[in-house]
Design a protein that fits this description.
Elements lengths: L4 H14 L5 E5 L41 H9 L20 E3 L21 H19 L1 H10 L1 E5 L2 H8 L6 H5 L2 H21 L5 E4 L8 H7 L7 H25 L4 E4 L1 H10 L8 E5 L1 E2 L14 E2 L6 E3 L7 H13 L5 E2 L3 H10 L1
Parallel strand pairs: 1-2, 1-3, 3-4, 4-5, 6-9
Antiparallel strand pairs: 5-10, 7-8
EC number: 3.1.1.3
Keywords: Hydrolase
Protein name: GDSL lipase/esterase protein
């Protein structure tokens, strides 16, 4: 039996009314991947224990965390269920109204970042999937409602760290480090990132939170590989020092071009540095050693069932060699929600939600 177009529109309106919360769309790398790589032949996976040990199911989900990740916690703030990975077979019907997570561990701004992980969803492909998602949603609620859902939705994008860690600094004399000095490489990354963000705007995104890189030289992996005394690696710290201010400038330029505050800068560097520099003030026993891993600072190899595992994840800032624990992520998310312009510029998430509610 075929459904007539007027009936489809009525059905779409009813479905749309079921969703009071904003739709939420997530793009980026392992910091925000909720399990897309589980569906790929990728070596960048978090689908085995002890990943997910503190997740509600106590099972690995593909999140690079002991529990919830940043998109999950932002979804809590939105009063919504977590967005499903785009590749999940469960993402259909009413679930499409919640949004979708397109992120894939290992990717970067550049398409040659993460080639060692074999199969990953590069950012250009994530944007193609966003188009595909809109076509699927349109068949459910019609094109006008789809445009409204996307325009009114919230977007989070986290890119850049892998372009340094898993590309420029991956090996001594890497191809990109031979091609570019660090300042030139940063300029190249920013120019490419602007194209990605402009494409997001073309695809309908109007509220986009863009994270800069965190303190890359301070993660357990880099301490294990490059630190003599537990101090953050200055070279990788310099990468963030160059990249983050230029990203802010690029976002300001895009906002001027579009005539509104489409892009919001999330200062991930400062959000992380607060508790990395003063861990005890935030209830952590260490901000250098990962909870799960092996070698110095538990920063070498993969987190798996043979790794060292701390008994209390809430006292560790890092879960594995690269990623924060759920508790550290909640501290970061709280700055997204209520942080000053030092953390979220030109506005935080609570201001965005209040403004959009009035409109």
């Amino acid at each position: 039996m075929s459904i007539s177009w007027p009936l489809l529109v009525i059905l779409g309106t009813l479905l749309f009314d079921l969703s009071e919360a904003k739709a939420f769309f997530v793009f980026g790398d392992s910091l925000v991947d909720s399990g897309n790589n589980n569906y790929l032949e990728s070596t960048a996976r978090a689908d085995s224990p002890p990943y997910g040990i503190d997740y509600p199911t106590h099972q690995p989900t593909g999140r690079f965390s002991n529990g919830l990740n940043l998109p999950d916690i932002i979804s809590e703030y939105l009063g919504a269920e977590s967005t499903l990975p785009y590749l999940s077979p469960e993402l259909r019907g009413e679930k499409l109204l919640v949004g979708a997570n397109f992120a894939s561990a290992g990717i970067g701004i550049l398409n040659d970042t993460g080639v060692q992980f074999i199969s990953i969803i590069r950012i250009t492909r994530q944007l193609e999937f966003f188009q595909q998602y809109q076509q699927r949603l349109s068949s459910l609620v019609g094109p006008d409602q789809t445009q409204q859902i996307v325009n009114n939705g919230l977007v989070l994008i986290a890119l850049g760290g892998n372009d340094f860690v898993n590309n420029y600094y991956l090996i001594p004399d890497s191809a990109r480090s031979q091609e570019y000095s660090l300042p030139e490489y940063v300029k190249f990354l920013i120019s490419e990132y602007k194209k990605i963000l402009a494409r997001l705007y073309e695809l309908g995104a109007r509220r986009v939170m863009v994270t800069g890189t965190g303190p890359l030289g301070c993660v357990p992996s880099e301490l294990a590989l490059r630190s003599q005394n537990g101090e953050c690696n200055p070279e990788l710290q310099q990468a963030g020092d160059l990249f983050n201010p230029q990203l802010v400038t690029a976002l300001n330029e895009l906002n001027k071009q579009y005539g509104s505050d489409v892009f919001v800068t999330a200062n991930a560097f400062k959000m992380h540095s607060d508790f990395l520099n003063n861990p005890q003030d935030f209830g952590f026993v260490t901000s250098k050693e990962a909870c799960c891993g092996q070698g110095p600072y538990n920063g070498l190899g993969l987190c798996n069932q043979f790794s060292n595992l701390c008994p209390n994840r809430d006292t560790y800032a890092f879960w594995d060699a690269f990623h924060p624990t759920e508790r550290a992520t909640r501290l970061i998310a709280s700055q997204f929600m209520t942080g000053s312009t030092e953390y979220m510029n030109p506005m935080n998430l609570s201001t965005i939600l209040a403004m959009d509610a009035r409109n």
